[in-house]
Specification:
α1 packs antiparallel against α2, α2 packs antiparallel against α3 and α2 packs parallel to α4. With 117 residues, this protein is mainly α. 85% of the residues lie in helices and 0% in strands.
Length: 117
């Protein structure tokens, strides 16, 4: 995701200018943090449901889950107040995990076809 964010930020800078690229970079950063927090929240829920030792508290899991949405809203608000032209870049950057999933699916398809599966 980090390499894809860097590559797409440079492409956005070249095609749409600095403001859009900065918004895109912020969107990518929010999407990256959001993805990892979601991963931790799901892992915490699974640990808690399975009764694993050292499971996180339910309140901590829920608060991090809700904090993700607050972070996205705060980022959108800051970008909108500072530079409304960057909002489109921010919104596009939030779709970074989708692009990363598409890259992973393409790689897995290539690997399966090269093995003859």
């Amino acid at each position: 995701m980090a390499a894809l964010a860097l590559l797409l930020t440079v492409a956005a800078w070249w095609k749409f200018g600095a403001r859009c690229a900065i918004g895109f970079a912020f969107g990518c950063a929010i999407a990256y943090v959001n993805f990892h927090w979601l991963k931790r929240a799901i892992s915490g829920l699974v640990d808690r449901a399975s009764g694993a030792a050292g499971a996180q508290s339910g309140q901590g899991i829920v608060s991090r889950f809700l904090l993700r949405y607050f972070l996205m809203a705060a980022g959108a608000y800051v970008i909108l107040t500072v530079s409304p032209a960057s909002l489109n870049g921010l919104l596009a950057g939030l779709f970074l995990p989708v692009a990363a999933i598409l890259c992973e699916a393409g790689y897995e398809l290539y690997a399966a076809l090269s093995r003859g599966v």
